[in-house]
C-alpha cells in the first residue's frame, strides 16, 4: 500500500538558494520507507530514489554539498521541488522505484552508461509471429523481450543460428514471395509464417521453447522434449519423435563444453563482480544453470557513482527488473556486501515466488567462481582503459592543434546528403570523450524551398541546420552555454571554407560565435579550416586529433546517407501510388503494410486488393487499372463485386 504526498511551491528558485523553505520542507518529510522525486524548475523529474527513511535520505543531499560527486552536485543545484510516495515496506519501495524509473527515465538515474558495444537478443512478442534477432538498441515496446547484454557477440549469434536450425522458426524478416513460401518451408526450417500456414498460437509455443534457451533453462527444455519424444515413439508417431530427437541433439551441442565445476549443479545461480579504477567500473555477471555457464553479461558504470557494493546493488536491481521472474536464480553470489542486500533479496523472492539468497562467498568453490568473474572484469577494465587513453590522447592533440582552452569533451559533427537537391537531409552526430553518443544523434529534413530536385545548395542547407540547432540559445541569452552538457566544446562541419563561412555567418547573427568553437574538415585533402583563416591548419593526416575528426566526419556522413536513402526509398515507394486518383496517404500505408512492395501490389488481383482495409471493390479496380491499363474494367469489377456478394452470403449463412 502506498500513500502519495507532494510539496509544491509557486516560486521556482532552487531549494539550495532558500534555506528556510528547504528546512521547513525537510522537517515535513516522514521517517518512513518510500520513493522520492527530485524536480527542476520546468517540472521535469531529475532523479527518483528510494529509502528506508525518506527524511534522512533526502536531507543527506543538502549536507556537505562540497563533498558530492560532480554529477550529484549538479543535480542538487537544479532541485526546485521534491515529491514523495510513502510505502509500507522497503521491498515495496524498491519495486515502485523500478517502475517509476522505467516510466520516467530521469536523467540523473543513469548509473549504467549507454554502452552500445554489447548486443541483446530481442524476441518481438508484440507480433503475431515473433521475430528473433540480435540488436544493440533496446526499443520501447513493453511486450518485446530482451536477453543480455551479451559480452560474446559471436557466441550469441552462433546460439541463435543453432536455435534456428533446431526449431522451425521464421528465417527471413520479410517474405521472399507474395503467394507462396520459400525453400526454408520445403526443407523444414520455417513453418510457413509468411503464408500463415501455422497459427500464431502454435508458433508462439515454438518461440517459447527457444526463449527457454536464453533464459538458462536448457536442461528443463531437454527434459520436456525427451518426454514428448518418448510419448511420440510409444504412439508410433516416429516422424515426430525423430524431429524431437534432432532438437534435443541440437540443444546438447549448444551447451557442450560449458561445464563449470560446482559441487551442487542443481541450483541456478548468478555470480557478479567488478573491477574499477578512479574513472571506470567494469562489471561482469555470469549466469550458471545446472552447472553450466549459459550467459556472460557485461555492464559499465561510473566508478564515482558510489561504493563498490552500491554499484553492484544498482546493477543487480537494473538487471533483474528487466528479466522474467522465472529467469531469477535461486542464489546470487556477489563480490562485495550489498548495502541493501536484504531488501533486494526480499524483492526478488516476491517476484520469483520462491526464496532467493544473496551471499558473499568467502572460501571454497563459490569464492573461486566469484574470483573468476572478477578476473574477467579486470580484463574488460584494461580494454576500457586502453580505449579511454587513446581517446584522451586524441582529444589533447586536437586541443593543441586547434588552440582550444580545454580538451573537447563533446564534439558535434554535421553533414548534408542529397542527390542533386532531392530528398536533402542533414545529420548531427555527437562524440563524448571520443566515443559515439548515439542517444544524442539527430536527423534534419532540409526545409529551405530553394533546395529541391535539380537545385542543391549545401551552404544554405548547412546554415539552416546550424540555425535550428542553436537558435534556442539565442532566444534565451541567460541560458547557460559553456558547461552545459548540451553545449558542444567543438563543432565540426563536413566541407570546406564555403560551408564554414555559411555557418560562421549564422552564428554571428545569433551572437554565439564568441562562445562556440567551429572548424571544417574538407574531404579531398583532409584539411582543417578555422573561421577567418584562408590557409588550413598545419597538421599531419595520421596524428591522433585528425584521426578523431575523421572518425567523426565519417560517422556524420554515414548517418546522413542512411537517412537520405530511407527518405528517398519512402518517396519512391509512395510516388506511384500517389498518382492513383482517390488513393490517399492512409490507404497507401494500408496497401504497403499488406503487400510490402509496389511489385506485389502490381501483381495482385482485384479480389486480393479489395480485402485490404479501406480498399473497396471500386478502388481495387482503379488500382488494378492503373497498373494494367489494357485490362477489361467491367469484367474485373463484376468479378470483385460477385466475390464480395458471395462472401457476404457465406457469412450470413
Can you describe what's shown?
By secondary structure, the protein is of the alpha+beta class. The chain has 5 domains: 2-109, 3-Layer(aba) Sandwich (GIY-YIG endonuclease), CATH 3.40.1440; 120-254, no CATH class; 269-383, 2-Layer Sandwich (Nucleotidyltransferase, domain 5), CATH 3.30.420; 403-568, Nucleotidyltransferase, domain 5 (2-Layer Sandwich), CATH 3.30.420.340; 579-652, DNA polymerase, domain 1 (Orthogonal Bundle), CATH 1.10.150. Helix content is 44%, strand content 17%. It has 20 helices and 19 strands. The chain has helices at residues 19-28, 54-60, 70-76, 90-104, 153-166, 183-186, 200-214, 218-234, 238-254, 308-321, 341-352, 364-402, 458-475, 497-509, 544-578, 585-595, 598-603, 606-610, 617-627, 633-652; strands spanning 2-6, 34-39, 45-51, 81-87, 120-123, 132-135, 145-147, 269-276, 280-289, 292-302, 331-334, 357-359, 410-419, 422-432, 435-436, 442-445, 490-494, 518-521, 528-529. The strands form 4 sheets. Strands 13, 14, 15, 16, 17, 18 and 19 form a 7-stranded mixed β-sheet that branches. Strands 10-9-8-11-12 form a 5-stranded mixed β-sheet. Strands 1-4-2-3 form a 4-stranded antiparallel β-sheet. It is globular and about 85 Å long. The chain starts with a strand and ends with a helix. Residues 2-11 and 633-653 have low confidence and may be disordered.
Amino acid at each position: 500500500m502506498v500513500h502519495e504526498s507532494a510539496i509544491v511551491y509557486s516560486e521556482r528558485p532552487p531549494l539550495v538558494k532558500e534555506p528556510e523553505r528547504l528546512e521547513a520542507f525537510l522537517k515535513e518529510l516522514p521517517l518512513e520507507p518510500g520513493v522520492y522525486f527530485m524536480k527542476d524548475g520546468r517540472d521535469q523529474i531529475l532523479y527518483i530514489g528510494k529509502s528506508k527513511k525518506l527524511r534522512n535520505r533526502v536531507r543527506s543531499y543538502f549536507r556537505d554539498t562540497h563533498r558530492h560527486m560532480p554529477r550529484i552536485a549538479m543535480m542538487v543545484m537544479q532541485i526546485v521541488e521534491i515529491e514523495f510516495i510513502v510505502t509500507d515496506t522497503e521491498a515495496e519501495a524498491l519495486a515502485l522505484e523500478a517502475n517509476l524509473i522505467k516510466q520516467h527515465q530521469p536523467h540523473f538515474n543513469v548509473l549504467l552508461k549507454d554502452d552500445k558495444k554489447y548486443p541483446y537478443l530481442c524476441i518481438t512478442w508484440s507480433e503475431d509471429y515473433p521475430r528473433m534477432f540480435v540488436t544493440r538498441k533496446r526499443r520501447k515496446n513493453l511486450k518485446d523481450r530482451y536477453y543480455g547484454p551479451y559480452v560474446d557477440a559471436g557466441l550469441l549469434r552462433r546460439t541463435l543460428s543453432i536455435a534456428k536450425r533446431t526449431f522451425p522458426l521464421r528465417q527471413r524478416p520479410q517474405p521472399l514471395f507474395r503467394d507462396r513460401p520459400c525453400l526454408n518451408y520445403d526443407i523444414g526450417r520455417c513453418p510457413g509464417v509468411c503464408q500463415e500456414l501455422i497459427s500464431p498460437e502454435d508458433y508462439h509455443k515454438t518461440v517459447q521453447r527457444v526463449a527457454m534457451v536464453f533464459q538458462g533453462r536448457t536442461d528443463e527444455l531437454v527434459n520436456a522434449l525427451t518426454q514428448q519424444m518418448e510419448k511420440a515413439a510409444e504412439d508410433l508417431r516416429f516422424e515426430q519423435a525423430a524431429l524431437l530427437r534432432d532438437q534435443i541433439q541440437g540443444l546438447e551441442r549448444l551447451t557442450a563444453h560449458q561445464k563449470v565445476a560446482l559441487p551442487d549443479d542443481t541450483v541456478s545461480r548468478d555470480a557478479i563482480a567488478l573491477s574499477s579504477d578512479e574513472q571506470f567500473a567494469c562489471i561482469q555477471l555470469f549466469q550458471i544453470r545446472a552447472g553450466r555457464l549459459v550467459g556472460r553479461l557485461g555492464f559499465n558504470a561510473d566508478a564515482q557513482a558510489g561504493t563498490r557494493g552500491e554499484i553492484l546493488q544498482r546493477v543487480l536491481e537494473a538487471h533483474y527488473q528487466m528479466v522474467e521472474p522465472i529467469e531469477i536464480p535461486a542464489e546470487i553470489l556477489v563480490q562485495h556486501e550489498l548495502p541493501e542486500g536484504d531488501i533486494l533479496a526480499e524483492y526478488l523472492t516476491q517476484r520469483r515466488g520462491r526464496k532467493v539468497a544473496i551471499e558473499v562467498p568467502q572460501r571454497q568453490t563459490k569464492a573461486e567462481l566469484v574470483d573468476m568473474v572478477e578476473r574477467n572484469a579486470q580484463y574488460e577494465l584494461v580494454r576500457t582503459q586502453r580505449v579511454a587513453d587513446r581517446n584522451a590522447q586524441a582529444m589533447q592533440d586536437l586541443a593543441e592543434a586547434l588552440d582550444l582552452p580545454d580538451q573537447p569533451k563533446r564534439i558535434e559533427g554535421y553533414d548534408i546528403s542529397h542527390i542533386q537537391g532531392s530528398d536533402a537531409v542533414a545529420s548531427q552526430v555527437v562524440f563524448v570523450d571520443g566515443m559515439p553518443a548515439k542517444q544524442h544523434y539527430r536527423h534534419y529534413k532540409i526545409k529551405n524551398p530553394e533546395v529541391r530536385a535539380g537545385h542543391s545548395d549545401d551552404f544554405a542547407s548547412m546554415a539552416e541546420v546550424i540555425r535550428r540547432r542553436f537558435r534556442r540559445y539565442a532566444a534565451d541569452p541567460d541560458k547557460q552555454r559553456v558547461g552545459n552538457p548540451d553545449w558542444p566544446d567543438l563543432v565540426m562541419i563536413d566541407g570546406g571554407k564555403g560551408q564554414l563561412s555559411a555557418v560562421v555567418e549564422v552564428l554571428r547573427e545569433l551572437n554565439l560565435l564568441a562562445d562556440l568553437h567551429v572548424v571544417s574538415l574538407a574531404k579531398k585533402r583532409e584539411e582543417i579550416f578555422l573561421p577567418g583563416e584562408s590557409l588550413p591548419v598545419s597538421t599531419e593526416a595520421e596524428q591522433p586529433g585528425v584521426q578523431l575528426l575523421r572518425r567523426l566526419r565519417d560517422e556524420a556522413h554515414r548517418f546522413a546517407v542512411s537517412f537520405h536513402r530511407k527518405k528517398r526509398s519512402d518517396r519512391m515507394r509512395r510516388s506511384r501510388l500517389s498518382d492513383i486518383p482517390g488513393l490517399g496517404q492512409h490507404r497507401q500505408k494500408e496497401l504497403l503494410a499488406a503487400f510490402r512492395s509496389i511489385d506485389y501490389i502490381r501483381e495482385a488481383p482485384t479480389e486480393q486488393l479489395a480485402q485490404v482495409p479501406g480498399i473497396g471493390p471500386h478502388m481495387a479496380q482503379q488500382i488494378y487499372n492503373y497498373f494494367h491499363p489494357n485490362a477489361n474494367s467491367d469484367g474485373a469489377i463484376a468479378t470483385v463485386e460477385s466475390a464480395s456478394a458471395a462472401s457476404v452470403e457465406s457469412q450470413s449463412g
